[in-house]
DNA sequence: CTAAGAATAT
DNA sequence: GATATTCTTA
């Protein structure tokens, strides 16, 4: 099965800044500092107010506060594809995350989304007749077709995985995106028993996308627009 | 100890 | 409401 080549992949990206940059730019908690919550390209150089009296120590990357993840339809599609490919059994946050191989995507991100998605699926099974289960909330979930076997009332025993992992093709239409300097994409999760994963060495290049959402700067893993 | 999943919190 | 974080449990 075709695995996404770097060119085929959506410009999946995660706004990431190195701990060093975060410190240097004094980027901290968005809820406390949302007015300065920004992510800078390698060229934009913000003028930060000042350095806190005793904050010159490097803070571990895992301790840094990550920006809120926005689940774009593209990203959700990757999620669904991953779940479909894995089968309900193996579709747990960690595995899904690994198969998605989206740079910067955390297990918690996936876990939270999975929880919501399962609720959606459950709610959808109730409406077997044909009445649409849309409440403007499900627009995201409705954006990607739900694989039939997701809606099994009881878990299957055999054949639960077979769908090819179809990468979301992207017509190089995303122009001037800000390419961030920080590139966390490395063979971070490159050892797994899953055969497919061994072939997925690819993490996606980094693009930065600031998005206004409810007055807060938020980060997207995909540029807005076409699919 | 890790991580899934549900329950809360922001 | 969407996503994050906490909490309990496997």
TrEMBL record:
A Pfam match: Myb_DNA-binding
Region listing for Disordered, in residue ranges: 32-65
Gene3D superfamilies: Homeodomain-like
Compartmental location: Nucleus
Keyword Secreted in record: no
One example GO MF annotation: DNA binding
InterPro entries per record: Homeodomain-like_sf (IPR009057), LUX/BOA-like (IPR044841), Myb_dom (IPR017930), Myb_dom_plants (IPR006447), SANT/Myb (IPR001005)
Residues of the HTH myb-type domain: 71-122
Keyword list, A-Z: Nucleus, Transcription, Transcription regulation
This protein's name: HTH myb-type domain-containing protein
Chief site of localization: nucleus
Annotated GO CC locations: nucleus
PROSITE patterns registered for this protein in UniProt: HTH_MYB
